Write a sequence for this structure.
């Protein structure tokens, strides 16, 4: 799949103008239709459309179990992707559509309902990680970020154990990258109670909500967290780490999951 396009642009540098070839990351609308009704249109690179669609539906509470998914059909061309998901239950029953403007791509999420529901959840995953391993995993995340190095236009997220990186995804939004990971684990019925998410990008509340709904007990980001995210982390018990640098990071909330020797 083509994930970037090359253009000749004009660059101003050192007091003068010159021509320069650059790569721009692909951006395409992906519409998710569940049981014949449109759920959302996301903007993405077009990678892993099945994982992205299912991950979004899982994180937005359209799906609770992989057994509910009967069929997934992807229709794709250069300008648009449509993912049609058929499920065995009524995903729209008793559902109030209340879209909020969030800091991510797409139409937003059912924010109020998600916060009210997830704030009552406690994450008790049994995973312990050494501080130096967090730094090593972030370095590995940067090494794998080849699309970002070429385009400077994407975020990167990964699913990790306490010792190694297990799954890597990249997209124009960190929301999409995390939903891809969620979709992959959901479709394969993989437990994530002893895993952590390592990601680039600011930890806004909708990002933390996705990670909590997945059931991942540790969230690590190279960027900082918002106040709402910190409050949600402390209510749910998720370990939240941010502002990871070469030899340092901030721990916003940690119920004993980071081994402080």
């Amino acid at each position: 799949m083509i994930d970037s396009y090359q253009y000749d642009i004009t660059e101003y540098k050192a007091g003068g103008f010159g021509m320069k070839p650059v790569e721009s990351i692909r951006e395409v609308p992906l519409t998710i239709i569940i049981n014949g009704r449109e759920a959302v249109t996301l903007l993405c690179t077009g990678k892993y459309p099945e994982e992205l669609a299912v991950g979004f539906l899982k994180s937005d509470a359209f799906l609770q179990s992989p057994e509910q998914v009967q069929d997934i059909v992807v229709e794709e061309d250069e300008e648009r992707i449509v993912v049609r998901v058929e499920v065995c239950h009524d995903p729209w029953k008793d559902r109030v559509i209340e879209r909020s403007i969030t800091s991510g791509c797409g139409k937003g999420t059912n924010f109020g309902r998600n916060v009210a529901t997830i704030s009552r959840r406690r994450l008790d995953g049994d995973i312990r990680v050494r501080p130096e391993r967090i730094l090593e995993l972030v370095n590995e995340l940067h090494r794998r970020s080849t699309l970002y190095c070429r385009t400077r236009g994407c975020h990167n997220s990964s699913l990790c154990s306490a010792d190694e990186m297990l799954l890597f995804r990249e997209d124009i939004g960190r929301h999409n990258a995390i939903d891809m990971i969620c979709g992959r684990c959901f479709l394969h019925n993989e437990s994530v109670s002893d895993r952590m998410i390592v990601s680039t990008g600011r930890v806004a509340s909708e990002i933390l909500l996705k990670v909590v709904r997945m059931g991942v007990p540790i969230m690590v980001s190279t960027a900082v967290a918002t106040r709402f995210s910190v409050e949600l982390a402390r209510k749910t018990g998720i370990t939240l780490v941010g502002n990871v640098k070469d030899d340092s990071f901030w721990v916003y909330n940690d119920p004993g999951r980071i081994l402080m020797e």
Notes: The chain has a mean pLDDT of 89. The chain has seven helices and twelve strands. Residues 131-253 form a domain with the Cytidine Deaminase; domain 2 fold (CATH 3.40.140.10). The first strand starts at residue 4 and ends at 13.
